[in-house]
Design goal:
The chain is of the alpha/beta class and 189 residues long. It contains six helices and five strands; from the N terminus they run αβαβαβααβαβ. α2 crosses α3 and α5 packs across α6.
Length: 189
Amino acid sequence: MSMAANQRTLWLQRHAPVIAEPGLCYGATNLAAHADETQAAAQRIAHRLPAGIVLRSSPLRRCAELAGAIVALRPDLSVQHDARLAEMDFGAWEGQPWSAIAREDFEAWTADFADRRAGGRGESVRGFMQRVAAAHDEWLAGEGDALWVTHAGVLRAVTLLHGGVRCPAAAADWPAGELAFGGWLTFER
């Protein structure tokens, strides 16, 4: 078998912009995305995907709607909802403007970035990374290409995992930059 025959691609697509005020913390909050932008994102990717690709989606509405729009354009595909692909849970910060979160609370979280629960009762970065890593490890051990319709946090987590980092030691180690809403990244294996 040639090396190319063994190559697999993991596509990660971010949901379209959510229907919410700018600057809102909404990790685990189940918000809808704008329907027209969701449809446009589906149209940009649907026919680029190879036949037989496995389509998984975060169960959160903003991703599930995009995955559904992709399947509507590509009836040869079906979607599997996977809770491991959901965004990080920010606990008491969910639904609050980031600007309303007490600076000392945010600094306490970033000072113990791996293990302190975000928003007091949310997920720790370590727990979030372990959850995403379980899905990533499953893809690595499996066969074939996959598309994950997911969130910015999961995209960043996979970027770390692809680079061999199972959990960032400090907040400064978390990948910076934004992936556009509806955009995607690919990783080869």
